[in-house]
Amino acid sequence: MSISASMVKELREKTSAGMMDCKKALEESKGDFEAAVEWLRVKGLSAAAKKADRVAAEGLVNAATDGKVAVVVEINSETDFVSRNDGFKAFVNTITQHALKSTSTAPILEQEISAGKTVGDSLKEAIATIGENLVIRRTEKYTVTGEGLVHTYIHGEGKIGVMVEVGASSAAAATSAEAKTLASDVCLHIAAMNPMALSQDQMDATVVAKEKEILKQKNLESGKKAEMVDKIVEGQIRKFLAENCLLDQPFVKNPDLTIGAYAKELSKKAGGDLTIKRFTRFELGAGIEKKVVDFAAEVAAQTKTH
């Protein structure tokens, strides 16, 4: 049968695949629309597999809130150019909204995003359409239980995303202007200061132990007396914890107050206790080893083969 332009257009709108790919899919499936969709999905699987070994360290961090629920998501691409692409931004927003509204406890790639289609299927289709390896790297979701609120903040056009949950001792305190101010200010502070833990008792014990060992060696190598080193290190560890635990950090907008003291100050004005319960901070590409290309060496290697 002949493949009409309207059929190609409809398939392209449904799948976001290229025009020629849509025409080829309809030809291969003899005009069967659903079979053509499946053909493109299979083609997308093939295209995605070829790109899977490419390092994806660019992309976007995104966030969304809906009442007492919030999410922050990091989706990576290979290049910064693609991260500015409208199609990529639309994909990131779709996944963010899915993460916000979904009640599934399955791994995100296995969750159904629409009838008969998983998030993983959508990812592979996006890879085929955009032409780069894409990775849904991580998501975090908060749901407030009891009185309180959640707040999110995106910094640097998607380079850093922060999510904070603030608990309150009453409904009036939870809905107060002070609670919203605290959540907003703390998000900004976390984006800027990158705390490692909420409080000292929540700091990873292995991190503290490693820091103690490093400080001990530094002090011994600098000539400090062995019998004095442990006492010196304890003081330095106290400083380390104060610098890296959110509640002990000097508030970036007013260094005369710690974040903990600032929360207490706003609690008095709100007429009820406001407590920072937890936070998440995603920095784009953090921990991903980016491939550094030495173009001079690459050209030299190629010339040797000729």
Please give a structural write-up:
The structure is a single chain. Helix content is 49%, strand content 22%. The chain has 306 residues and is α+β, with helices and mostly antiparallel strands. Among the domains are: 5-51, Orthogonal Bundle (Helicase, Ruva Protein, domain 3), CATH 1.10.8; 144-203 and 245-306, Elongation factor Ts, dimerisation domain (Tetrahydropterin Synthase, Chain A), CATH 3.30.479.20; 205-241, GTP Cyclohydrolase I, Chain A, domain 1 (Orthogonal Bundle). It has a 3-stranded antiparallel sheet with strand order 1-2-5. It has a 3-stranded antiparallel sheet with strand order 6-7-10. It has a two-stranded antiparallel sheet with strand order 3-4. Helix 3 crosses helix 6 (119-130). The two termini are 49 Å apart. Residues 45-50 have low confidence and may be disordered. It holds the Pfam family EF_TS. InterPro entries: EF-Ts_dimer_sf (IPR036402), Transl_elong_EFTs/EF1B (IPR001816), Transl_elong_EFTs/EF1B_dimer (IPR014039), Transl_elong_Ts_CS (IPR018101), UBA-like_sf (IPR009060). Associates with the EF-Tu.GDP complex and induces the exchange of GDP to GTP. It remains bound to the aminoacyl-tRNA.EF-Tu.GTP complex up to the GTP hydrolysis stage on the ribosome. One of its GO terms (molecular function) is translation elongation factor activity.
